# Entry
Amino acid sequence: MQIMRNKKGAVLILTFIVMATLAAITAAFLSLTSIQTKGSGYDIVSHKTLWLADAGLQKAFYTLKNDVNYQNNPTPLSGSLGDGTYLVSVVKNNSIYTFSSIGTVGVMNRKITHSMALTSSVLVRSIHADGSNLDFQNSNGTVNGNVSCHVQVVNYGNMVINGTVTDGFPMINPAIDYDYYKTLAQAQSKYYTTDLTFQNGTFTGVYYTTKKVTIGDNAVINATIIAIGNIDFNNSANNIQINPANNYPALATKGQINSTGVGNPKVGLQNSTVNGLIIAEQNITFDYLINTTFSGTVLASSNISMKYGSNFTLNYNENIFAPMPPGFSYTASGTTAVISQKDWNEIVPAV
# Structure
């Protein structure tokens, strides 16, 4: 009898332990489920606040592009979407607008920032001639951007142009403030009254000469070159890299920019890369180009010739006008263009 009582007691204790264990597991499961549910809800709200902040930015970008009063005197924008709100503040610095947008749902918010540059659509092009013609005779290359001439773009049938081709385009009248760059060059001891040659070396800074410039083989020009005379690429110039600093122009002259073919077969500028703004107050001649890429904008106050070239590329690069190169001026017309500064950033509050 005593043994039976002991067995019953042991079974009762074991049953109690099993029940307690199951209860603990159930409680833990319910707690974990609750945490996961809360976490899922938190994630949903967090995403909503980010979407609201982005919606505020998009509203600001649209307003910047279409509202002249806002362009001149930007003020905070706010709005409601769904179960949340957004608030966008802005700081204007010349042509750059820096936006901060906060999305809020309940007590939660997220903040993102992004800058935009405002410019004229006349600058949104890879190449433009203010003269009578822009000629691609017998060339095969690629243009990623708009192509235009004040009178006529001709002989581009063999070109691949990923943009619009416009004849009779309004004159842009591109110009730079030569005195501005003269002062910069003088401060760097790079102001000259003699001809300059860039070849077989690396060059930095801002160079200014009252004479002409010759650019030859193997020149790495991390600089801006300003000339009162012509800028010539020397006899089949090869392996040239031009990449100016501080959003300055790459090449600017009151004369012409020339690269003409030599030899048999003729070869012009080859195996080279030029980034930035190229501007000439007279003609630009880039004939017989081979394996060369221009990334930026090519502008001439007169005619442009790009004949007999092969495997060359012109890429419009919006970043050279964001912000605008110092001392650069033009005739604005047409619609405005809003250019992203590619500096999207989320501001995470300190814990």
Notes: The helical segments are 2-66, 68-72, 178-187.
